[in-house]
Amino acid sequence: MPEGKTIDEMKIGDSAQISKTITEEIVNEFARVTGDTNPVHTDQAYAEKTRFKGRIAHGVYSLGLFSTLLGNILPGYGTIFLSQEVTFLAPVRIGDTITARVEVVELLAEKNRAKFRTTCVNQDETVVVDGFAWGMPPKK
After folding, report:
1. 79: CB partners within 8 A, 6+ apart
2. Residue 44 falls within a domain, yes or no?
3. d(Cα 72, Cα 134) in Å, to the nearest integer?
4. pLDDT tens digit string along 34-86?
5. Mapping DSSP to helix (H, G, I), strand (E, B) and coil, where does residue 113 land?
6. For the chain, which end, N or C, has fewer CB atoms within 10 Å of the first or last residue's CB respectively?
7. What is the rounded distance in angstroms from the CA atom of residue 137 to the CA atom of residue 8?
8. Which residues lie across from 88 on neighbouring strands?
């Protein structure tokens, strides 16, 4: 298995991104796995009566994309996701394509910690999630 980048192999500005189209199957499976069956996610008739006017994806699904990026791409395998500070700015709807991006904004070599700007945008370039995460890159 490939190893992720160490703190010494990263630099400020390094970034990675992935895109995912949100399907009804993804929303339903996420609800099943997590137990979060809030009807704003699972019941179209209910959701149409809310401020969202239809079903929306779970906000924390988008956060899962950051975990995918940090654990698989940047820094990659062996990374420990330590914390996440986030603001949900707009709903993610079924059919949206979300692009999650992480960018290195701070490196603390003496503590083996990296801070990342974390954002998700939809297909219209609307920022739907914005925040920061801390990770501990692998050591070789």
Report:
1. 4, 70, 71, 135, 136, 137, 138
2. no
3. 15
4. 999 999 999 999 999 999 999 999 999 999 999 999 999 999 999 999 999 99
5. strand
6. N
7. 9
8. 129
Q: How far is 87 from 127, CA to CA, in rounded Å?
A: 10
Rounded Cα distance, 59 and 56, in Å: 8
Question: Does 84 fall in a domain?
Answer: yes
Rounded to an integer, what is the distance from CA 94 to the centroid of its chain? 16
Number of domains comprising the chain: 1
* Cα–Cα distance measured from residue 118 to residue 16, given in angstroms and rounded to the nearest whole number: 10
* C-alpha atoms less than 13 angstroms from C-alpha of 50 in its C-beta half-sphere: 15
Domain assignment of residue 126, yes or no: yes
Distance CA 54, CA 89 (A): 17
Tokens found for residue 134 = 């801390």
Q: What is the pTM of this model?
A: 0.93
d(CA 69, CA 60): 15
In angstroms, rounded to a whole number, what is the distance separating the alpha carbons of residues 139 and 122? 34
Place of tokens 């399907």: 23
Q: What is the pLDDT of residue 3?
A: 82
